[in-house]
Amino acid sequence: MHILTPRPGTGTTTGGENWVGYLTTAQNASLVLSYNLAVGGASIDNSLVQGSTDVDLASQVDIFDETYSSKPASAPWSAENSVFGFWIGINEYVVLCSGETRLKLAPPMFIDQGNATVEQHAAYLAVYNRNLEAMVDGFKTNHTDILDDPTDYGFPDATCINDDGTSCIWWNDYHPSAKYHQLQAEDMKKVLQPLGAW
């Protein structure tokens, strides 16, 4: 199977480069290889929520496994020098909000194991949801810069939309702009520097 990774700045929903492209081409201190298996409109798993494409996240992980997990010469990576990013889930949210589908909260596999198993998983999910909420609240508290003070970053306000990718935070009413992604990459660089390429 041949995977054609789009050139950075193409195939994005930003009006230009996304954070991966900036980290790969502008923020790097040495050669950085990126492999983009993303497909616009994909859902996490088409068997749960059908995305607008046949390639869902589960398929993308399978493609990675088939193509790159053996660490071929064309993709020399290791766990110590690699970053894997997933931006996924908004398509499920949109479908759920449209009322087109309902997620089954307790999969049959667990229901068939009896009430004790269902209750145990419900308890796990409650802990997970509390921790996730705390993490999101902490992130929101510590990352207010751009949306709270957009003019400090060259944006007219926090809600404007422009498909030029540079003059507004938002490229469309759904995706942040290339300029936002550039700022995100600059912020991420500080966290990624211990890996050595930044």
Automatic annotation (TrEMBL):
Q: Which InterPro entries does this entry report, sorted A to Z? A: SGNH_hydro_sf
Which superkingdom does the taxonomy of this entry point to? Answer: Eukaryota
Q: What is this protein called?
A: Unnamed protein product
Organism annotation: Aspergillus oryzae var. brunneus
